[in-house]
């Protein structure tokens, strides 16, 4: 039976990484968080995992968890000076009452208990480095006291429960930890310096910068935490990196690694700011056989890359907890959305959330009923919550009755599929049928808004089809606007509500009417709006708007294929693409986004849209050779994954191969044109035996019936000769190499997304093979 852990603060920076690693090691996770400093987005990618459950809970209140619990990990607490200065009472309560309640849960369940304490219990230390038996130099009434004393009390309470109640407890003292998912504005040195350096703002060094810190990458910290959790050691145990550096040295290093020209600006140093910080990790080394493996340059480089990608993507996080649909003050409009697939369901739900009255129309009554019951028909983080909230507001409904949806609609959005035909050109049969079905129900002066991806010139085609369908009603006026969608699966709600741009094509008057629908987004005036987001409204002619969607996807696909071309060359020349591409992306004219080598792109958009552009161009006598090469390189990358297996294993017939990840990208259950399935098809064709694990995929099309779907990574790897990572689900980065090696018969791991931490595999007996190195 699988073990089960309760993790408080599980949606925070450290907690989210812990949740990933626990799941990867076969431990189910109940994640508790009140989202004061954590975010549901940190664990959104885990929501489809069978063993993961997220609950909004304040552990300062009584908690009750039904069923068995094997581990309780108490990681809830504000953890940066800026947070606990604003939330002193909450900080004290989570350290006292929260510790009391979680210890009570561990006592009730007979669970192993791990307390996340802190190096702040040493205060401004008079002993250097700090061993666990040092009592500290803490100001109990100073500005940091709420955090320091909360953790000191938590340690005392934990020791008392061990002594008086026999609870199997452990205490970990965490030193300065950093890595992906830190909040840019959390006030700590590394996110401050990185965001300032990337933006070109002055880098604010407190005091003269001579105070020291010891920086531990989050991967190392999580490794230490789990070693302590799975041991019999009670602690306290220092878990941190003994490599000490001054704040000034840190600022200069980050400036160098980012290539920034930001000046250093010296500001006042806060009261009670520790002058020195360095852990003595003798106990961790001798008892847990743990020490940090990620050096500061490598760790900071990865962290900077994460912050840079975050800035490039400009993805403000949408929090379902903040839902209050319809709070915008703009005029409400009546909108019909034809088609409730991926684009249609998201468009319907988000427009209703903005305050409009929306009815989604689908000929499939079962699909309409499912949506009316608040059930999202596909995996999309945040959609179930916003769907239920908007349905309850009374402004959103779904139907299979055209008259109900269309008769009083001021705007009709076309969101039906345009799949590629045999020659790559879009099949417009569904769209034509939808347009013709509108005619009997339209009100005068209605605006037809085309969000379906259609060939350039389809705006005129739409007008003609509708005019012919209105043969008996020539007096009815209508307008056509192109509004291409730029929704990425896995973050579609963010993309709709916090877009880079909204593109509208058509006459000036018609475009102005449609822009009014989006005014809450343009102004960010809705309930969960973000002041720092400033979407651009781009208005064009019809044909240009239609071309923008194709051009955008063609460029992104080409950028990935370029990265893969460079990866192939790096393998030939003995270079490391993991060093080459970040250096290219550091140029602001290029950017890091989509410079990702591996098994290539997939999904419903890139291939279809590039094929449509090629097909349309050839109709006009032009062959876009660069786009043809983009497709060719992408196909070759999938073949390359199989060639790597053949090079290492030679004959593949009868070999057992495990594929980790089946969807074309993380955060979705979409299998369309997924590289994993193409690779699986090739492996099955040569006689390989294929197993697979994906966090959200529970079934496959009939042609892949031979693939053995499993419940986790290690079951998929059972007795296999090789493992291939084909989708970069974040939890795969937390795979335990030793457990993986024990499960496998062979020792080959092909990292098809260059996402696995190479240092973790050192000494594991596994051979890690990537793309471009």
Automatic annotation (TrEMBL):
Gene Ontology MF annotations: carboxy-lyase activity; NAD binding; oxidoreductase activity, acting on the CH-OH group of donors, NAD or NADP as acceptor
SUPFAM superfamilies, per database record: 6-phosphogluconate dehydrogenase C-terminal domain-like, NAD(P)-binding Rossmann-fold domains, UDP-glucose/GDP-mannose dehydrogenase C-terminal domain
Keyword entries, A-Z: Decarboxylase, Glycoprotein, Golgi apparatus, Lyase, Membrane, NAD, Oxidoreductase, Signal-anchor, Transmembrane, Transmembrane helix
Catalytic activity reported: UDP-alpha-D-glucose + 2 NAD(+) + H2O = UDP-alpha-D-glucuronate + 2 NADH + 3 H(+)
Positions of the UDP-glucose/GDP-mannose dehydrogenase C-terminal domain: 658-758
CDD domains documented for this protein: UGD_SDR_e
Membrane topology: Single-pass type II membrane protein
Protein location: Golgi apparatus membrane; Golgi apparatus, Golgi stack membrane
Pathway involvement of the protein, from the record: Nucleotide-sugar biosynthesis; UDP-alpha-D-glucuronate biosynthesis; UDP-alpha-D-glucuronate from UDP-alpha-D-glucose: step 1/1
EC number: 1.1.1.22
Matches recorded under InterPro entries: 6-PGluconate_DH-like_C_sf, Epimerase_deHydtase, NAD(P)-bd_dom_sf, UDP-Glc/GDP-Man, UDP-Glc/GDP-Man_DH_C, UDP-Glc/GDP-Man_DH_C_sf, UDP-Glc/GDP-Man_DH_dimer, UDP-Glc/GDP-Man_DH_N
Family label: Belongs to the UDP-glucose/GDP-mannose dehydrogenase family.
UniProt-recorded name of the protein: UDP-glucose 6-dehydrogenase
Annotated source species: Mycolicibacterium arabiense
């Amino acid at each position: 039976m699988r073990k089960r852990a309760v993790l408080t603060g599980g949606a925070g920076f450290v907690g989210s990484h812990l949740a990933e690693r626990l799941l990867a090691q076969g431990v189910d996770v109940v994640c508790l968080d009140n989202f004061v400093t954590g975010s549901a987005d940190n664990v959104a990618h885990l929501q489809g995992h069978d063993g993961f459950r997220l609950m909004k809970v304040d552990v300062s209140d009584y908690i009750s968890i039904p069923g068995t619990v094997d581990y309780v990990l108490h990681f809830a607490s504000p953890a940066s000076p800026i947070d606990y200065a604003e939330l002193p009472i909450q900080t004290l309560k989570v350290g006292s009452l929260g510790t009391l309640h979680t210890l009570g849960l561990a006592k009730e369940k007979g669970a192993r208990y791990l307390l996340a304490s802190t190096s702040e219990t040493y205060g401004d230390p008079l002993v250097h480095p700090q061993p666990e038996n040092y009592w500290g130099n803490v100001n109990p009434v100073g500005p940091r006291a709420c955090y320091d004393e909360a953790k000191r009390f938590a340690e005392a309470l934990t020791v008392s429960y061990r002594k008086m109640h026999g609870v199997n407890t452990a205490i970990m003292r965490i030193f300065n930890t950093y890595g992906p998912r830190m909040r840019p504005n959390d006030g700590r040195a590394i996110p401050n310096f990185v965001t300032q350096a990337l933006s070109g703002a002055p880098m604010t060094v407190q005091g003269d910068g001579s105070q020291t810190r010891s920086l531990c990458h989050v991967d190392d910290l999580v490794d230490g935490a789990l070693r302590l959790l799975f041991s019999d050691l009670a602690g306290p145990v220092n878990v941190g990196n003994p490599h000490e550096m001054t704040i000034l040295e840190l600022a200069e290093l980050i400036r160098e690694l980012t290539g920034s020209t930001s000046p250093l600006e010296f500001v006042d140093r806060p009261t009670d700011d520790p002058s020195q910080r360095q852990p003595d990790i003798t106990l961790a080394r001798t008892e847990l056989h743990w020490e940090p493996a990620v050096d500061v340059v490598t760790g900071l480089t990865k962290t900077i890359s994460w912050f840079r990608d975050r800035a490039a993507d400009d993805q403000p996080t949408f929090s379902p907890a903040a839902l209050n649909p319809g709070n915008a003050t703009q005029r409400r409009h009546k909108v019909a959305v034809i088609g409730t697939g991926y684009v249609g369901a998201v468009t319907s739900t988000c427009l209703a959330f903005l305050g409009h009255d929306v009815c989604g129309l689908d000929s499939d009554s079962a699909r309409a009923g499912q949506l009316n019951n608040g059930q999202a028909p596909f995996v999309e983080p945040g959609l179930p919550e916003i769907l239920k909230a908007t349905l309850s507001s009374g402004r959103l409904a779904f139907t299979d009755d055209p008259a109900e949806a269309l008769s009083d609609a001021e705007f009709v959005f076309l969101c039906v599929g345009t799949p590629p035909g045999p020659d790559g050109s879009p099949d417009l049969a569904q769209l034509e049928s939808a347009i013709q079905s509108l005619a009997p129900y339209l009100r005068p002066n209605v605006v037809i808004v085309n969000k379906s991806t259609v060939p350039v010139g389809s705006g005129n085609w739409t007008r003609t089809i509708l005019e012919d369908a209105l043969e008996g009603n020539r007096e009815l006026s209508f307008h056509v606007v192109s509004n291409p969608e730029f929704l990425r699966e896995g973050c579609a709600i963010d993309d709709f509500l916090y877009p880079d741009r909204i593109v509208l094509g058509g006459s000036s008057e018609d475009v102005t009417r449609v822009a009014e629908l989006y005014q809450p987004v343009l102004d960010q005036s809705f309930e969960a709006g973000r002041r720092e987001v400033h979407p651009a409204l781009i208005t064009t002619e019809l044909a240009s708007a239609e071309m923008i969607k194709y051009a955008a996807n063609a460029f992104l696909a080409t950028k990935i294929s370029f990265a893969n071309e460079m990866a192939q060359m790096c393998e030939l020349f003995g270079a490391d693409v993991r060093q080459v591409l970040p250096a290219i992306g550091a140029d602001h004219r290029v950017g890091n986004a989509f410079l990702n080598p591996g098994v290539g792109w997939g999904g419903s958009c890139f291939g279809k849209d590039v094929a449509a552009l090629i097909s349309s161009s050839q109709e006009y006598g032009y062959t876009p050779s660069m786009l043809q090469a983009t497709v060719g390189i992408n196909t070759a990358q999938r073949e390359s994954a199989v060639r790597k297996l053949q090079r290492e294993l030679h004959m593949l017939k009868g070999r057992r191969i495990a594929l980790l990840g089946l969807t074309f990208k993380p955060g979705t259950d979409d299998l369309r044109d997924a590289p994993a399935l193409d690779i699986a098809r090739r492996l099955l064709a040569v006689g390989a035996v294929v197993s697979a694990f994906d966090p959200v995929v529970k079934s496959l099309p009939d042609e892949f019936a031979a693939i053995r779907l499993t419940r986790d990574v290690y079951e998929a790897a059972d007795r296999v000769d090789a493992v291939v990572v084909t989708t970069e689900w974040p939890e795969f980065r937390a795979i335990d190499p030793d457990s993986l090696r024990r499960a496998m018969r062979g020792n080959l791991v092909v990292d098809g997304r260059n996402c696995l931490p190479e240092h973790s595999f050192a000494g594991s007996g596994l051979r890690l093979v990537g793309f471009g190195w």
